[in-house]
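Lab meeting minutes (informal)
Scribe: AK
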Amino acid sequence: MPPAATHSSPTTLPATPLTPIVLVTFFASLATGVMWSGLSFIAESVHGYGRFDNFLLALSQGVSYVLAAFAAGRVTRALERRLTPRSLLQIVFLVQGAVAMLPIFFGGVWTLWAIAIVVSMASAIQWPLVESYLTAGRSGTAMRGALGWWNVVWMSATAIAVALIGPVIDAGLTTWAFALLAPNALLCVAVVSRFGVAPGEHVHDLEAPVPATYRHQLASVRVLLPTSYVVVAAISPLMPYVTGAFSLSTKESTLITATWLVARLVAVTILWRTRGWHGRWATLFVAGVLIASGFATAVLAPAPWMLVLGLAAFGLGQGVIYYAALYYAMRVGNAEVGAAGTHEGLIGVGYAVGPFIGLFSTIAAHDDLDRNRIFVVAIWATMALVAWPAVRPWVRERQRGAAVA
């Protein structure tokens, strides 16, 4: 969803340097980690939220993100005559910083909901703009190198944020944890001033033609990626209660929760720096198995070590799916990446579907163990529904190969 570059006189806009983009990504991702993975712990510890309330809060985040993501393109185009993309990005950060200050001046749980919804909607506009600055003006090899560093940075930041939120809650400083998002947002505004007035011009990838299997695998992974985010959004609000079954402190719970984020970072780093997985269907198959089995193991774990093992497996699988989707989209070419805003919205659908399944499992049973079992079955059923669309590209490739032979 790159905004039109109508605010600069040169006919060719250069790429924005990678350093300010990476810095903004790191600071903004600290807030993302708190809001998407740490918020459930804050709601449970500070406001006494149970499973139903936390899933409802997460559902509101997901729906807000979806609505904003699908509207972001129209909003950006409507504002581009009055605001440069750089100015719009700075305004988005200022809005997040302002709403983060609410708990300091006002009491009540409504501030939690206000922060969750506003930051979610702002993120749906923020990240496509950042990604546009990251990729525009860079050719295929340079673009993928920049994306590799960018992914390592944002995934590291989210893991750090989740690991730190536990000690903050235990110290009774939750209000200030939100308040610190305000200077963090101001820091982002300052760094964004080093961006170009608009993203650079897109350049064509002059690399060799891509193998046909890449197109088939891109079609498959574009089904798997939103599905993996259904599982991400399903498990995040549940973590305070999964870890609570083992009488862990909030600090220990958030550290364990960060396991899947660290595992995802490891998977993405390995795939970024290696080539043996390119074009191999087995990579996607193993990743899908890791997500399904890791999720079930984590939710139904009878011991903390099994919880850690399940989260690690899930994180590895999700990281593989995420980076494979990114790699094949970039490798196939610019024409295949044109619907970035819609793609972001589809991931947002995952953020909404996951908590909805969580609400269903919570209502369907009274015992937590039964709820968890229903939860796993419902998630697996969702994954089964998308199994054929994900497998169909592989079947078509095999059929065409057999016909040629």
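Next up, CB showed the second protein from the same session:
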Amino acid sequence: MVSSGTTTLARGHLRLASAPAVPGPGRRLALRLRAMAATFAVLWSTLQAWWAATWALLPLLVRPAPVGRRLRQRPLQEARVIPFHPRRRVGQR
């Protein structure tokens, strides 16, 4: 056991945690205001994202349906077989 000169709570690098301090009324108000500000920021960015997505997809709703005939499909081309040259025999030495 490693003992420090003033307290016996310390053991090397480990220290016992003290009890959390009870926040005062001013701190509670500040925490609530910060939580409200974070909530407002998230809602605002969500509304902006919805607005931007709506404007980006709006041309798809306004565009008229295509009119006219379908294009002719080209007939499928047949595969060509490319003949390989026959192998040459290596001469004996």
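CB comment: The CA atoms of residues 9 and 15 lie 6 Å apart.
No objections, moving on.
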